[in-house]
Amino acid sequence: MDRANFLSRQTDSGNYAFVVKQWREQRLTLRDELGQLLAAIVLPLSGQQLQEQVTEFCANLLDYVCAGHFVIYHNLLASEPANQPETRLLCRKIQQYIGSSTDQILLFNAYCEDTGRSGRFNSSLEQVLGRLTRILLMRFALEEQLMELGNIDSVRPLTPCA
């Protein structure tokens, strides 16, 4: 989880705009890697090459999810305005939906670990990746809503994670 740790360390320096920018760039990279992984299913790759690509994608996906939960969302919810209970309630509801997608991402990761240990991915990988794609697209949209509601693009100091 090197990337999540890096972003978390930036929390201490208060470099909020940098953290958000890096996290969003990480999301774009994930989207590109997912596209490459979907393409790899139809390309004549060896089982080892596909396994390496899936393993790297899973590691990057977990880094992204950890950074979101422990750096971005933590700071957003810590800075919610007390005088806007509707906004706070909506932010928490969106975070619950994001949490549900986290559960699905962890299931995907477990599937990859189990399948990867056997040394080959079965024919369901394409279907599993299709489902993951839908989950991630919804998650990315919810994250943008959460950041918009919390004015996360504004430059303000970060609070350290407890």
What is the CATH homology-level superfamily? Regulator of RNA polymerase sigma(70) subunit, domain 4
- The overall average pLDDT, rounded, is 79
Unreliable stretches (pLDDT < 50, length at least 5) are 154-162
Please count the helical segments: 5
Radius of gyration: 17 Å
Kindly report the CATH topology: Four Helix Bundle (Hemerythrin (Met), subunit A)
Compute the number of strand runs: 0
Number of domains: 1
Major beta-sheet overview: none
Q: Distance between the terminal alpha carbons, to the nearest Å?
A: 18 Å
Instruction: Please write the string of helix (H) and strand (E) elements.
Output: HHHHH
Considering DSSP H and I runs of 4 or more, what fraction of the residues is helical? over 70%
CATH architecture: Up-down Bundle
Going by helix content, strand content and strand pairing, the class is mainly alpha
Task: State the CATH class.
Answer: Mainly Alpha
Strand residues, percent? under 5%
Description:
By secondary structure, the chain is mainly alpha-helical. The chain has a single domain (2-149), classed as Regulator of RNA polymerase sigma(70) subunit, domain 4 (Four Helix Bundle (Hemerythrin (Met), subunit A)). The protein is 80% helix and 0% strand. It contains five helices and no strands. α1 packs antiparallel against α2 (16-42). The model is unreliable at 154-162 (pLDDT under 50).
Keywords:
Four Helix Bundle (Hemerythrin (Met), subunit A); single chain; 5 helices; mainly alpha; 162 residues
